[in-house]
Design a protein that fits this description.
Layout: E1 13-19, E2 25-31, H1 33-42, E3 46-49, E4 54-57, E5 66-73, E6 80-86, H2 106-119, H3 125-132, H4 134-153, H5 157-177, H6 182-199
Parallel strand pairs: 1-6
Antiparallel strand pairs: 1-2, 3-4, 5-6
Length: 201
């Protein structure tokens, strides 16, 4: 990791914590060199508490740890952006984020579908798809794709949005069945975009 500037805030760096899947900002904390080193060694975010004057690992009492996925440094080398997989609510008030409830997104939907696949709760439509197997999931995706085409030809915008939503849901179900994440698809698209830019020169 490149050299960091701990001098601007008297030995501390702001550390923005972001959910690696949903990209929602979870909290802001501060790290000194020792907190950053412990974070790197353990893989769990550790801060420096300005009020208690000591290191504290997020989740050391609640069990809601922040598991590090990636650490980024800003252009001035004085702020950290840490992408994590949280194991529970981050805010001490029990909320998903210190900045409020979890915003819904395709990444959040992916987490819900992944949980359905793992735990397979009874009376869940998503569970029934996974239990039916790959062929049924593919069949359902094909049916939804046809319905999107039909809705696109009609003039009812609400129906079109509903059918697109059903299609996206079933695409994510198929991705989960194939053990491929939305993030992998985003990375694949990003690489294709970079290749296209290179080919233009």
């Amino acid at each position: 990791m490149e050299k960091l500037d701990f001098q601007k805030l008297n030995g501390l760096l702001p550390a923005i914590i972001q959910d690696a899947q949903t990209k929602q900002v979870l909290m802001l904390g501060f790290m000194n060199k020792e907190a950053l080193e412990k974070t790197q060694i353990t893989g769990k975010v550790t801060f420096y508490s300005r009020s208690k004057k000591r290191l504290w690992t997020k989740g050391e009492t609640s069990g809601n740890f922040l598991n590090v996925v990636q650490t980024k440094i800003d252009c001035d080398s004085d702020t950290l952006l840490i992408l994590v997989h949280p194991t529970g609510p981050v805010c001490h008030k029990g909320q998903f984020s210190c900045f409020g409830k979890e915003d819904f997104s395709l990444a959040v939907l992916q987490k819900i579908i992944a949980d359905r696949k793992k735990h397979q709760p009874a009376n869940s439509y998503t569970t029934s798809l996974f239990k039916a197997g790959l062929d049924r999931i593919i069949q359902k995706l094909g049916e939804e794709a046809v319905e999107v085409v039909i809705a696109a030809k009609n003039s009812n915008e609400e129906d079109f949005k509903n059918e697109i939503s059903d299609l996206l849901f079933n695409i994510i179900v198929l991705l989960q069945e194939k053990e491929i994440s939305l993030q992998e698809i985003e990375q694949f698209l990003g690489q294709r975009h970079e290749n296209m830019k290179k080919n233009k020169h």
